[in-house]
């Protein structure tokens, strides 16, 4: 059996994701689609809209064959490390290819951009350092340095676009590890990453869907953008918890997590740097709502995404020391499988390059302990009294 890999968050699984999954299978000629999916906290530094079990159910009900969890260490990291962890897991799972959605829609520009940056790495990094010193954000410094290299030449990936940026890092990660996986991309259709929902379309971004839900207060208001199985899973999740995950819901506990520390102690948490801990502490003292809090600390230097990742690590207690202790993913955590996925594992299990874990009780290493703790903290933020869910929930099965 052949498998193609995709990297996802499914926050939540919408019609655009369904298109991606189907196209990935078609363009790769694969028998199975393997998804590496973020767990309870996401790359933009946010609690997941629904927990990893609900999102796994949505994935399997919509045609995904295997879902593996991207460990917290990578799921909440900047793009290059996020991609490094995800590609390592897809490689270990035996995928022959990986496929990502992009604004570019063609794979050649990504190869061209990778070759360009590899050839001019020293000049590129020097330009980034120089730009950061002027006070602009790191993402803007990256883009400035990249534009200086590419100039007006065509044939390179447009790295101002969010999905192109992630796609570039997937290609880069695969190249650096010498992976035999073939990179593929499909055109992202209709909605852009940050676009609000368009009521005349059946495609909307996950960001737009979440925004519309929180404004309207009803999952039915965004039902047109979701496959029927996703809608059913989200209704069940909301019935269980009475809400969906957001920083607004988690903020009282985040605020406590900040204020229980002295400002200098906040700097020990991952990504907290450059003295921002003092501003975070003072803002938490003054602001009773998350929106006011994040507006008070956001600046040109510190983007909302960068700040939210810091806040995620403060909330979960994830430190610089822990971050620096991890080099590579150490296991494949199985969250769910279809019948096809089960057959794939039975056929390929001797060739899977990492330990295959199906129970939290078997996550007996520091990276796994971080994942388990993150799940506890997510459940706490959602108001769940069941702190055993991580241990009592078996992999989802969709036959």
TrEMBL record:
InterPro entries: Rossmann-like_a/b/a_fold, tRNA(Met)_cyd_acetate_ligase. It catalyses: cytidine(34) in elongator tRNA(Met) + acetate + ATP = N(4)-acetylcytidine(34) in elongator tRNA(Met) + AMP + diphosphate. ATP binds at residues 7-20, 101, 163, 188-189. Its EC number is 6.3.4.-. The keyword Nuclease does not apply. It holds the Pfam family HIGH_NTase1. The keyword tRNA processing applies. Keywords: ATP-binding, Cytoplasm, Ligase, Nucleotide-binding, RNA-binding, tRNA processing, tRNA-binding. It is found in: Cytoplasm. HAMAP family: TmcAL. Catalyzes the formation of N(4)-acetylcytidine (ac(4)C) at the wobble position of elongator tRNA(Met), using acetate and ATP as substrates. First activates an acetate ion to form acetyladenylate (Ac-AMP) and then transfers the acetyl group to tRNA to form ac(4)C34. Belongs to the TmcAL family. This is tRNA(Met) cytidine acetate ligase. It comes from Planococcus chinensis.
């Amino acid at each position: 059996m052949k498998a193609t890999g995709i990297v996802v968050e499914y926050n939540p699984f919408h019609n655009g994701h369904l298109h991606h999954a189907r196209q990935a299978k078609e363009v790769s000629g694969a028998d199975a689609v393997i998804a590496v999916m973020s767990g309870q906290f996401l790359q933009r530094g946010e609690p997941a809209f629904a927990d990893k079990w609900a999102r796994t159910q949505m994935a399997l009900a919509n045609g995904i064959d295997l879902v593996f969890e991207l460990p917290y260490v990578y799921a909440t990291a900047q793009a290059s490390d996020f991609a490094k962890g995800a590609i390592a897991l897809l490689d270990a799972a035996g995928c022959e290819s990986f496929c990502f959605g992009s604004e570019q829609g063609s794979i050649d520009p990504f190869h061209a951009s990778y070759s360009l940056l590899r050839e001019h790495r020293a000049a590129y990094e020097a330009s980034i350092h120089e730009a950061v010193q002027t006070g602009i954000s790191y993402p803007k410094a990256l883009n400035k340095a990249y534009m200086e290299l590419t100039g007006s030449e065509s044939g390179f990936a447009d790295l101002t676009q969010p999905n192109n940026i992630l796609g570039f890092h997937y290609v880069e990660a695969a190249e650096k590890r010498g992976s035999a996986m073939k990179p593929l991309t499909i055109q992202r259709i209709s909605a852009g990453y940050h676009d609000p929902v368009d009521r005349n379309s059946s495609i909307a971004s996950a960001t737009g869907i979440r925004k519309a839900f929180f404004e309207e207060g009803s999952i039915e208001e965004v039902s047109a953008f979701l496959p029927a199985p996703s809608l059913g899973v989200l209704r069940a999740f909301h019935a269980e918890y009475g809400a969906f995950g957001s920083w607004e819901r988690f903020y009282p506990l985040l605020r406590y997590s900040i204020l229980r520390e002295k400002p200098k102690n906040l700097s020990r948490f991952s990504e907290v740097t450059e003295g921002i801990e003092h501003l975070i502490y003072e803002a938490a003292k003054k602001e009773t709502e998350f929106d006011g809090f994040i507006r008070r600390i956001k600046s040109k230097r510190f983007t909302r995404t960068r700040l939210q990742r810091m806040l995620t690590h403060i909330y979960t207690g994830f430190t610089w020391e822990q971050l620096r202790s991890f080099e590579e993913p150490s296991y494949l955590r199985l969250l769910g499988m279809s019948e096809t996925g089960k057959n794939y594992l039975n056929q390929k299990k001797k060739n899977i390059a990492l330990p295959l874990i199906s129970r939290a009780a078997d996550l007996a290493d520091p990276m796994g302990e971080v994942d388990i703790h993150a799940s506890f903290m997510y459940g706490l933020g959602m108001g769940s009294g069941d702190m055993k869910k991580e241990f009592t929930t078996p992999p989802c099965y969709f036959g």
